[in-house]
Design goal:
mainly alpha, 10 helices, about 0% strand
Length: about 350
């Protein structure tokens, strides 16, 4: 009667509902990030839980709780044991670097002796410019240390999440199958439910491969950097290896930032820059072209430009959390797109006319 198109109204209400959901998700993004971390932590422990569940004797009531409890005990023991060996040395080297850093910058900023030739003069002028710029950036870093310390205190005040995340992961591991069945029950049997099952299966494989690959890549980076720095005698080797291990969780940008920090600290402390540079280039090529594709599997197939866009866009939207989640979110979007496209092609193919 009023000339309202039902189809247009339905599309409008659907778009409005989607925008409302996205707005609500943005409002609770911090809580969602905690749950996502718990889910990824659950995927990290899932292989150990499955192994223990097969090893433990059969019970009348089939439950994963004993395997879960034992897996948590093993994980905590490993973390505490490794932390007791590594953390004190990292703290010691970080303290020493903080105390020596101003003197290292002052030594680097000091101009070289007067040259004797035109070519040497030009070279030393360039080196002096580099020294001045590095000193400025280093002084900015020193000035920013109080702000970084305050931010660390704010993060330390949220250490309750260290307890919350394993608790949430426990429920994900214990009731993951029931959660999946409940999600599937929301859709009636048919093509849409089959599509949802395929998407959930692909997401399960993707998250499992991605989280385990990140942990293994970080462990490989820490081991390789620590061993190499110890062999050639790089100052603050354990600290730099630990920093590289943490930055490995940020795709592409993290390893690049770690390499720049390593070269800066090694250069200021008089380390063998050519050997370090050659090692960083060789290790990145080996990891990016051989190790990482094998560990990630076929689930994460994203172009480097798309990964960089996701990292920077995620940083603008949600800071460090956005950079960490950018790659899995883009991979999830890719999975959904591919599954929907395959479902449409499978529906259209039987009705296509013969050539």
């Amino acid at each position: 009667m009023l000339g309202i198109d039902r189809s247009a109204a339905r599309i409008t209400w659907t778009a409005a509902a989607i925008l409302l959901v996205l707005w609500l998700v943005y409002l609770v993004r911090s809580t969602l990030f905690i749950f996502v971390l718990a889910l990824l932590f659950a995927y990290l422990l899932s292989p150990l839980v499955d192994l223990l569940n097969r090893i433990l004797p059969e019970r009348r009531i089939r439950t994963r709780t004993p395997a879960l409890a034992l897996a948590y005990v093993i994980f905590v023991a490993l973390v505490v044991g490794a932390g007791a060996q590594i953390v004190p040395r990292v703290v010691e080297q970080a303290t020493a670097l903080k105390e020596r850093f101003p003197n290292m910058v002052a030594d680097w900023e000091r101009p070289a002796a007067p040259p004797t030739g035109d070519l040497s003069s030009l070279r030393n002028q360039v080196l002096d410019k580099v020294r001045i710029e590095v000193a400025k950036r280093s002084n900015d870093l020193i000035a920013a240390l109080p702000r970084l310390g305050l931010r660390f205190l704010l993060v330390a005040s949220d250490l309750i999440y260290v307890v919350i995340i394993p608790v949430l992961a426990f429920f994900f591991l214990k009731d993951g199958g029931q959660i999946r069945d409940h999600i599937l029950s929301l859709v009636d049997a048919g093509p849409r439910r089959a599509l949802l099952e395929d998407v959930l299966a692909d997401v399960n494989v993707l998250l499992a491969h991605y989280m385990r690959a990140l942990v293994l890549l970080s462990f490989c980076a820490f081991s390789a950097y620590g061993i190499f720095f110890a062999i050639i005698g790089v100052p603050y080797g354990i600290l730099l290896a630990a920093l590289s291990c943490l930055l490995e969780f940020i795709p592409m940008v993290g390893p690049l930032a770690a390499s720049l920090i390593i070269l800066l600290v090694a250069g200021l402390s008089g380390g063998p820059i050519p050997w370090i540079l050659a090692f960083l280039v060789a290790y990145r090529m080996f990891q990016d072209y051989f190790v990482s594709p094998h560990l990630m599997g076929q689930g994460v197939e994203l172009h480097p430009l798309l990964v960089l866009f996701g990292v920077f866009a995620g940083a603008e939207v949600a800071g460090i959390a956005g950079t960490f989640l950018s790659v899995p979110v883009l991979a999830l979007v890719r999975i959904v797109y591919i599954r929907i496209r395959k479902a449409r092609l499978s529906v259209e193919l039987p009705g296509s006319s013969p050539c």
